[in-house]
Amino acid sequence: xxxxTAEFVKSALGPQDCPRDRRPEFAFAGRSxxxxxxxxxxxLRRKGLAKTSKTPGKTRTLNxxxxxxxxxxxxxxxxxxxxxxxxxxxxxGSMITTYLTAREPLQMVAHLIDSRHPPTPNDHELLAxxxxxxxxxxxxxxxxxxxxxxxxxxxIDAIRADLELDDDALVIPFSSVTGQGVxxxxxxxxxxxxx
Length: 195
Ligand code: GTP
Ligand code: MG
Description:
Order of helices and strands: EEHEEHHEHEHEH
Radius of gyration: 16 Å
Bound molecules: guanosine-5'-triphosphate, magnesium ion
Distance between the termini: 15 Å
């Protein structure tokens, strides 16, 4: 994908604030600190476009970024950084679950999982929610640069087993530091835009 323009458009707190021009959207979801905003910056080759932080809970609204004036990337707040585990809808709010299950222009959700840790109960809930709403979902294993090479295949296998994925389901190893996975992710986005 040739990126001509990539710009922040708006923050939304619910469906009423989302863009109304019906351009296709791609959303990035996952637990807090998993690397959603970093991935978006890496894909768009714009450091600092989406705000990132070492501290979980940085992104607090649905943030829309317009790409080439043609489609949107949507950076979502993360879930699960409170100490006491809660159900996804309680911690994350109905704002995001409603967006993910009822947003018409949404083409695909990239569901990010930290490659160093097993998926959380909230990850399982999100996957089930997206499956039930029949939203196309792509799994992305983040922070892959932090794994030793001997840990890499086992990490992907562990995610696949834990989430009981079909053999043909894609899990893309990704690193915002090295750029691993950028091309594979764009291939999927481009496929959606053409399809
Ligand atoms: P919230 O907005 O709080 O939900 O977090 P987020 O998922 O947007 O995470 P963010 O992109 O802000 O990254 C969290 C931290 O992880 C930052 O300190 C990033 O620099 C770091 N990080 C993100 N991606 C990678 C990666 O691929 N490799 C490494 N080594 N660090 C990463
Ligand atoms: Mg963020």
